Amino acid sequence: MNIVVDKKRCPQNHPCPAVKVCPVNAMTQKGFAAPEIDAKACIACKKCIRFCPMGAIREG
Fold first, then answer.
1. Which residues, 6 or more positions from 9, have their beta carbon under 8 angstroms from its beta carbon?
2. pLDDT tens for residues 16-55?
3. Which residue stretches of the chain are H helix?
């Protein structure tokens, strides 16, 4: 299972709050762009999914 970012749902105009909740630092964000998820580092805990207020992070 992979966690993905739906760029259509991500407003890409602010620091992503979900990046800070990742316990293994698998999420990164450059500027205000949609965050990227390192699939190899991700442990699929789903904290980012629950934390994203826009519903842009999901299982893919």
1. 54, 55, 56
2. 999 999 999 999 999 999 999 999 999 999 999 999 999 9
3. 47-51
**What token pair was written down for 49?**
């999914």
Token pair, residue 10, equals 């991500």
Going by C-alpha positions, the residue among 14, 43, 42 that lies closest to residue 27 is: 42
CA pair distance 38, 5, nearest whole angstrom: 11
Q: Where are the domains of the chain?
A: 3-52
Domain 3-52 has CATH 3.30.70: yes
Residue type, 29: Q
Residues of the chain with pLDDT > 90, as a percent, come to 97
